[in-house]
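Budget justification aside, the reviewers requested a transparent look at the raw inputs and outputs of the sequence design task funded under Objective 1. We therefore reproduce one unedited record. The lines immediately below are the structure tokens for a 267-residue chain.
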């Protein structure tokens, strides 16, 4: 059994079977490679050697160009619009056939800001923590090992086998890259692509959902290992759909994720 989603292999990363998604035994779930792209963006140097004040990703959008094979992949990233306070980054993930994912991300400089004590109050009911959730049965994939076994799930509402909105706590059982501790951003990206998977509005045995992108907005970094997905999938009779996911940690809101979906009947 592998002990990470990816293993370093020279200037590439070898995807292990823990990256396997539920729909194709030879293709990765989009979460782990999205995390790998985020890792590359985080490792970019800023305008100065000391990168002070620190820069954090406020928004990252992943474009899924085709299925990501369970095979060695290469990742690259660059700053395409440098700036003293904000900078736009681009990244790409490729296999031997070419590009399979590309991304853009905004990194913003962080500085202490004194905010008014009587600022806006957001009325939001924080779901119970992961200790109060239930594991829930994953839908049959035909495989004993994959993303579904590399992640831990605790459902507060809904479930994989229940159509409709869901609230689930997720955490990685293994590192993203062997020998490395995942960063907060990496933990979010590995989990966030599951928004549609946990909240499918239609029977997955009769309908398919193809997400072509993943956009994650974060107003603060998550704390701890658990990431909560409060997800809703909205299919339309036109064949378009949207998965809308509120992201939380055990302290409260951290941001939001969205996925554009193609919805269709299975053949």
């Amino acid at each position: 059994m592998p002990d990470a989603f990816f293993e370093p292999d020279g200037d590439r990363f070898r995807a292990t079977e823990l990256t396997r998604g539920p729909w194709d035994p030879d293709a990765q779930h989009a979460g782990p490679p999205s995390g790998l792209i985020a890792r590359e963006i985080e490792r970019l140097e800023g305008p100065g050697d000391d990168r002070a004040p620190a820069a954090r990703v406020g928004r990252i959008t992943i474009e899924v160009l085709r299925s990501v094979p369970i095979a060695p992949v290469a990742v690259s990233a660059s700053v395409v619009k440098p700036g003293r306070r904000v900078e736009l980054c681009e990244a790409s993930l490729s296999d031997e056939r070419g590009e399979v994912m590309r991304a853009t991300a905004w990194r913003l400089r962080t500085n202490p800001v004194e905010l008014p004590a009587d600022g806006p109050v957001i009325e939001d009911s924080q779901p119970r923590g992961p200790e109060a959730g239930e594991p829930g049965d994953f839908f049959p994939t035909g495989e004993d090992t994959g993303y579904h076994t590399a992640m831990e799930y605790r459902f507060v509402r809904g479930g994989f086998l229940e159509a409709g909105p869901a609230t689930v706590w997720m955490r990685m059982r293994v590192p993203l890259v062997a020998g490395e501790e995942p960063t907060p951003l990496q933990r979010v990206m590995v989990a966030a692509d599951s928004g549609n998977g946990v909240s499918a509005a239609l029977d997955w045995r009769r309908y398919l959902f193809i997400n072509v992108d993943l956009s994650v907005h974060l107003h603060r970094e998550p704390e701890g290992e658990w990431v909560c997905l409060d997800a809703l999938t909205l299919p339309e009779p036109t064949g378009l759909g949207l998965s809308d996911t509120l992201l939380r940690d055990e302290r409260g809101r951290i941001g939001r994720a969205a996925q554009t979906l193609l919805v269709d009947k299975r053949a």
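The longest helix spans residues 31-42. The domain at 6-110+132-265 is CATH 2.40.160.210 (Porin). Computational costs for records of this kind are itemized in the attached budget.
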